[in-house]
């Protein structure tokens, strides 16, 4: 049988015995196939299509203008050559040790630490930076592996002239990345502070259903499409609170998001191998470690709606936080109430006090209670 024009051969193969259908049903099928779509339905469809096209064109034009204007923004820090590309960093304060901030899996880079850096710079040298491809940092050609990220950061610190030793402060994925730095440069590290850090072996603590939900990641293809038409700005529009404390971050973040988004997707692609390798790094020796953990029972409400799964996630996350205490022979945990995952935004003073205490521990080589760093 020769397919009729405009009808899929595939669909015809679904009904090879159409002639065996009773005459009354064949007539019904024939009538249905000959029914005309009302003109108003066509008009509505055309109007919707035109509206979507107009919105996409508007978004594309707005995005293009925004990217052009973003190129005029003057970076607030300096640049360090790390091989064949440059990384942007912000250095404030003087003295030793140097506090080194490592950001989570997000496109905000050093902006996550901007406010805290202003506070801690009064006590010692502080450095925050943008990983390759994030904000003002160039992407370069290095793969997004834990070792390469650590090597680039170490080279940046060497070229910055920041005094050793370093106290590493890592949030979420940044906490996982500190493991690579400690493994490669243990003699340069005076202490590590993990802020609600991810656990590289989280699958061991989660049920298959919850593990799939947690590790599913961002929709890469859609995000690339959305980024071209300005929609990514809406997706990441809540990285910082909309108040006066974050005026600077909220002015920079949207302007440079188009660039950071691609780097974030690259980090997501490399995350399984990063976590697999990080899980092999099980000891910091006697390097002092402080694990700062959020304890708000509602901190997972934004992405887990099922109450049973939410309770499971809270319990599992608490276990993962405690498990990381075993990384060092000298470790302690600080529980932070009324805080979600971004403790640096919800309860920054908890982090600031922990950093101050570790500064004194490093300078005087003895444990110091929290909050006793002299002004």
Description of the molecule:
The chain has helices spanning 9-13, 23-34, 39-70, 114-120, 146-160, 173-184, 208-214, 220-228, 232-235, 247-278, 307-323, 343-346, 348-364; strands at residues 78-81, 86-92, 98-102, 125-129, 166-171, 189-195, 289-294, 331-336. By secondary structure, the protein is of the alpha/beta class. The chain folds into two domains: 23-72; 78-364, Rossmann fold (3-Layer(aba) Sandwich). An eight-stranded mixed beta sheet has the order 1-2-4-3-5-6-7-8, with helices on both faces. The protein is globular and about 85 Å long. It comes from Chitinophaga lutea. GO terms for molecular function: hydrolase activity. The chain crosses the membrane at residues 44-62. InterPro entries: AB_hydrolase_1, AB_hydrolase_fold, Meta-cleavage_hydrolase.
Quick description:
This protein is of the alpha/beta class and about 375 residues long. It has helices spanning about 10-15, 25-35, 40-70, 115-120, 145-160, 175-185, 210-215, 220-230, 230-235, 245-280, 305-325, 345, 350-365; strands at about 80, 85-90, 100, 125-130, 165-170, 190-195, 290-295, 330-335.
CATH topology of the largest domain: Rossmann fold
Low-confidence stretches: 1-21, 367-375
What fraction, in percent, of the residue positions are helical? 40-55%
What CATH architecture of the largest domain do you see? 3-Layer(aba) Sandwich
CATH superfamily of the largest domain: Alpha/Beta hydrolase fold, catalytic domain
Mean pLDDT: 83
Strand order of the largest sheet: 1-2-4-3-5-6-7-8
Q: State the CATH class of the largest domain.
A: Alpha Beta
- Radius of gyration, CA atoms, in whole angstroms: 27 Å
Which structural class is indicated by helix and strand composition?
alpha/beta
The number of distinct structural domains comes to 2
Helix and strand succession?
HHHEEEHEHEHEHHHHEHEHH
Number of helices: 13
Work out the strand percent: 5-15%
Terminus-to-terminus distance? 90 Å
Shape: globular
**Largest pleated sheet:** 8 strands, mixed
Query: What is the count of β-strands?
Result: 8
